[in-house]
TrEMBL record, chain A:
SUPFAM superfamilies tied to this protein: MetI-like
Keyword match Cytoplasm: no
Listed PANTHER family: GLUCOSE IMPORT SYSTEM PERMEASE PROTEIN GLCT, TREHALOSE TRANSPORT SYSTEM PERMEASE PROTEIN SUGA
Membrane topology: Multi-pass membrane protein
Predominant cellular place of this UniProt entry's protein: membrane
UniProt-recorded name of the protein: Carbohydrate ABC transporter permease
Keywords recorded for this protein, A-Z: Membrane, Transmembrane, Transmembrane helix, Transport
Superkingdom: Bacteria
Transmembrane portions of the chain: 69-88, 100-122, 150-174, 206-224, 258-280
Domain ABC transmembrane type-1: from-to ranges: 65-276
Localisation per UniProt entry: Cell membrane
From TrEMBL, chain B:
Protein name (database record): Carbohydrate ABC transporter permease
Membrane topology: Multi-pass membrane protein
Source organism of this protein record: Rubellimicrobium aerolatum
Segments passing through the bilayer: 26-47, 90-111, 123-142, 154-177, 198-224, 255-276
Domain named ABC transmembrane type-1: residues: 86-276
Compartment(s) of residence: Cell membrane
Similarity section: Belongs to the binding-protein-dependent transport system permease family.
Gene3D superfamilies: MetI-like
Annotated InterPro entries: BP-dep_ABC_trans_perm, MetI-like, MetI-like_sf
Highest taxon in the source lineage: Bacteria
UniProtKB/TrEMBL annotation, chain C:
Keyword GTP-binding in annotation: no
Name of the protein: ABC transporter ATP-binding protein
Organism in which the protein naturally occurs: Rubellimicrobium aerolatum
SMART domains registered for this protein in UniProt: AAA
Family according to the record: Belongs to the ABC transporter superfamily.
Keyword presence, ATP-binding: yes
């Protein structure tokens, strides 16, 4: 057991001050706005839970939330299995392994708006390779006009951008499996599927939980990439929560509704992450004491 | 009892196994090739466009630049309003990385070594900040940093990015520190080391790879973020990413310059990856495997 | 079960080995008799695990062939060799129950469920795992996990051989003894060919009917525990086996006498003139302290290890151990040592030299 020593707070203090400055103060501002209304620039008055009430009845918010959930679900369902598949096929050592690692990490270090720009160009029918190719196949494709096309483009972009993160995490998990497990499986005449199901998947579980949490949170907060590609359109087809929020807060300066929106938004992420984490740790416990 | 190895089987089995093994490695090669192709094609296209003139881009369609030109790059590298964007971005990213790792180190040590009042709650609360959508914080940050006179400075962006990088750094470093046996600390106390000396001389070298990984992730998330950095800057500290979006809307889409600017933003990331390539696999385990 | 034949077998981890030193396993010819329990004994890094992995098919040897009952299996993969192997660290399928773990190798081979259940039950009873059969494997202690690994090795009745790679390293000393006894009982009951790798001589000598001693990639002796003790083929075997190990003293051998610093001693046999480095080896158990006859020694200290005492002495600047039976006399005047001539071995360049019977 770790020794109890409250002087450890002194070591945590710098983090506490910094995060308090950059999280607590702004959050209090948001909470403050969320219960007030203003007509002019600097006159505020109490509005109670009015904004929250409006928000819960706002079709615009529910639509954005629905799109957001759908988007996160789709990208998780594609990226997690694909990432695992890639990790299983990555070379384990030597030059090719390094090359794969470097190339795969590349999209992760491209600024979000450049990711948007790359796909904005790549998907255009007039100058983009993808747009041209799809059009050449006789498919009427235009991500700025057709909602389905816009969704497909954004989902493919997200898969392009983030699958490597899951693959790299899963790969790190795979590499930690001692060789003896594979040897034992070979001696037991386990099929390739059984090796995956009973050795690799259980050993990757820890990193996969992290990967899924990270991908859920980040996909739920996505802003820049779809904003650059579609600007939230056509219509509102790709207006996700963050895009809607920024439009509301910085575009229309609707401080009260935006603040209430912000709080709900944050709470949803916290709640889902907490629920996922709790379920996963409970599953652990059911499987016996560690 | 051993008819399993009857002569026919003994010759047939190895051939079949060898074939299965080579089929599997061929399968892997095909999967990886397709995936890497998928990753690289869009980037290739960006590079391709950056080497064309705007006329060539809009005038016709070609898979590679027919008349390669570096004019787009020249435009960027000779115009301060362009290249200062890179300088600004690098300044706040490096600032952020240094601040995040510096404050996270002692905190991670505290979490990995001691129990103290409210430690678990504090740790979880820190992590919740990683779950905060930047969009939520854009407006309050804008007001906060304007109020304290830090708007449009590098330090403002660096501090804002601490919101998500500090919790991440604490979390990663805690994982690595937990792997260092406590006996090492205790031996150092017995040998009469003071805390700062012990921490810098003995402990830090032991978790050097963890510091590297934490710094890598801080760099990565600060470099790619746009929403906050754009909101908190206007002229003096404007990041390259923001410069790009503005130029697109103002100058009527100069695709070549835009593509060249994009290629240039990929380079710092690619360099960082190249330097840490041997640690990537270990690093992505975040000290937690 | 099968007879395993190694023919001109050698292995190097390098693709193009130059010279003998680069071979992790030096050339070797050996027959492992069907149904026998062998121990592969040697210090860490002597090539014993390499040899084991070649037999199980996890490593393909650089040269030579392996035959199971006369069939060449050198290129056959592990699965086709139908062997079982237990590793140093417990390898269990974490998410499966103990029962499913034990059934795993059988189910993969498509045995009917009734037969699987019966075998699992039988193995669990032998290893004392019946209670934990329905539990998940991940929560169990290292002991129990290693028992599961052993059980997975045992569960198939028709295996050609069961290979153990230092399987008791992670087990508590008390449990070690118990598991070793169980393994011996299992061997008596089913008569599988068993090969047991270990660096612990007690484990090797109590488990196996024949012990293969390896040193620096070479098999130096194969024999019964008694052979190894009484007639070590190499000085390494002499001091690796036995506690304390054999005394090895440089000597000049002439006919049936050996000249040591301080005098000559009689040998049980006569020897032709030897070349190279000559040494004599004498087990501490066959050395006697005496007041009147033999070579003069200086006694450094005496250790009491329970059943007997060990005298650490010094003979002409060389350390010499003498085992004193319980109740054996030990007085201040006993400063001489004699050796039982029948048990003095002669070694040239480390290898035992057989002499001719004394006339």
């Amino acid at each position: 057991m770790k020794p109890i020593d409250n002087r450890a707070w002194l070591l945590v203090l710098p983090v506490l001050v910094l995060v308090a400055f950059s999280a607590v103060v702004p959050l209090m501002t948001v909470v403050n706005y969320s219960v007030q209304d203003s007509f002019g620039s600097n006159e505020f008055f109490w509005n109670g839970i009015g904004w929250f009430d409006d928000l819960l009845h706002s079709e615009r918010m529910w639509d954005a939330l629905g799109r957001q959930i759908l988007f996160s679900a789709i990208v998780l369902l594609i990226e997690v299995p694909l990432g695992i598949l890639i990790a299983l096929h990555m070379p384990r050592k030597g030059f090719w392994s390094s090359l794969c690692l470097v190339l795969m990490a590349l999209p992760l270090l491209i600024p979000f708006n450049v990711v948007g720009t790359i796909w904005q160009i790549f998907g255009r029918v007039d100058i983009g390779l993808l747009g041209r190719a799809v059009a050449a196949l006789g498919i009427d494709y235009n991500y700025t006009r057709d909602a389905i096309d816009a969704w497909v483009t954004i989902v493919v972009m997200d898969v392009w951008h983030w699958t490597s993160l899951i693959a790299l995490l899963a790969y790190a998990g795979l590499r930690s499996i001692p060789q003896a497990y594979y040897q034992a499986a070979e001696i037991d005449q386990a099929s390739r599927w059984a090796v995956f199901r009973f050795i690799e998947l259980p050993k990757m579980r820890g990193v996969l939980v992290i990967a899924i949490l990270l991908r859920f949170m980040d996909s739920f907060m996505i802003y820049t990439e779809p904003f650059v590609v579609t600007g939230g359109g056509p219509g509102n087809a790709t207006t996700f929560l963050s895009i809607d929020l920024v439009k509301m807060a910085l575009g229309q300066f609707d401080l009260g509704p935006a603040a209430a929106f912000s709080i709900m938004y944050f709470l949803v992420i916290l709640l889902v992450s907490w629920a996922f984490y709790t379920v996963m740790t409970n599953l652990d416990r059911e499987e016996g004491p560690r | 009892m051993t008819d399993i190895l009857a002569s026919s089987a003994a010759t047939a089995v190895p051939a079949r196994a060898a074939r299965a093994r080579s089929e599997r490695s061929w399968g892997s090669a095909v999967v990886m090739t397709l995936y890497l192709l998928f990753l690289l094609l869009p980037i290739y296209w960006l590079v391709n466009m950056s080497l064309k003139t705007n006329n060539e881009i809009l005038g016709g369609f070609s898979l590679w630049p027919v008349d390669p030109t570096l004019a787009n790059y020249a435009t960027i590298l000779t115009d301060p309003s362009w290249y200062m964007g890179y300088v600004n971005s690098l300044i706040y990213v490096v600032l952020n990385t240094v601040i995040s790792v510096a404050v996270a180190l002692p905190a991670a040590y505290a979490f990995s070594r001691y129990s103290f009042l409210g430690d678990k709650h504090l740790f979880f609360w820190l992590l919740t900040n990683r779950m905060a959508p930047p969009a939520v914080f854009a407006l309050p940050f804008f007001q906060l940093y304007s109020a304290v006179g830090l708007f449009d400075t590098h330090i403002a962006v660096a501090l804002a990015h601490c919101l998500f990088n500090v919790p991440l750094a604490v979390w990663i470093l805690e994982g690595f520190m937990r792997g260092v046996p406590r006996e090492i600390d205790e031996t150092a106390w017995i040998d009469g080391y003071s805390f700062p000396r012990f921490f810098l001389r003995i402990f830090l070298p032991l978790i050097a790879s963890g510091v590297g990984v934490a710094a890598f992730f801080c760099f990565m998330f600060s470099w790619v973020e746009l929403l906050l950095s754009r909101t908190l800057t206007s002229v003096n500290a404007k990041p390259i990413a923001s410069t790009m979006t503005r130029t697109v809307s103002a100058s009527g889409l100069d695709w070549g310059v835009l593509a060249a600017a994009g290629v240039l933003t990929i380079i710092p990331g690619a360099l960082v990856i190249w330097f840490v390539r041997n640690y990537i696999a270990k690093g992505f385990a975040l000290g937690r495997v | 079960m099968a007879r395993i034949t190694l023919r001109n077998l050698a292995h190097s981890y390098l693709a193009q080995p130059r010279g003998e030193e680069e071979f992790a396993l030096k050339e070797l010819d050996h027959d492992w008799a069907d149904g026998e329990a062998y121990a592969l004994l040697g210090a860490s890094g002597c090539g014993k695990t390499t040899l084991l992995n070649i037999i199980s098919g996890l490593i393909r040897p650089s040269q030579g062939r392996i035959l199971f009952d006369g069939h060449d299996v050198t290129d056959a993969p592990t699965a086709a060799r139908n062997i079982a192997q237990v590793f140093q660290f417990p390898v269990v399928y974490d998410t499966l129950t103990v029962r499913d773990n034990l059934a795993f190798p059988l189910r993969n081979r498509g045995l009917p469920p009734a037969q699987v259940a019966a075998r699992v039950q039988a193995v669990a009873r032998m290893l004392g795992l019946e209670e934990s059969l329905p539990r998940r494997a991940r929560g169990l202690t290292a002991d129990a996990k290693q028992k599961i690994s052993l059980g997975r090795g045992m569960v198939r009745q028709d295996v050609n051989a069961i290979l153990f790679d230092e399987p008791l390293t992670v087990i508590d000393p008390q449990m070690k003894w118990e598991l070793r006894t169980q393994l011996k009982a299992l061997h008596r009951e089913f008569g599988h060919t068993m090969i047991y790798v270990t660096h612990d001589q007690t484990e090797a000598l109590t488990f196996a009917s024949r012990v293969v001693v390896m040193h620096e990639g070479r098999v130096v002796q194969i024999g019964t525990p008694q052979d190894l003790f009484e007639r070590p083929a190499h000085t390494f075997v002499g001091y690796f086996i036995g506690s304390p190990g054999m005394n090895v003293l440089p000597a000049r051998v002439e006919g049936d006498r050996a000249h040591l610093p301080g005098g000559a001693i009689p040998l049980g046999r006569g020897y032709a003139p030897l070349s190279g480095r000559t040494e004599i080896g004498i087990r501490p158990e066959f050395a006697r302290l005496s007041a009147t006859e033999g070579l003069p020694v200086a006694i450094r200290r005496v250790e009491d290890v329970g059943r007997h005492r060990i005298v650490r002495a010094d003979l002409g600047g060389r350390p010499l151990d003498i085992v004193l039976p319980e109740g054996g006399p030990l007085g201040p005047d006993m400063t001489r040592v004699t050796f039982d001539p029948a048990h003095v071995g002669v070694f040239a360049d480390g290898w035992r030299v057989e002499g001719e019977a004394a006339r």
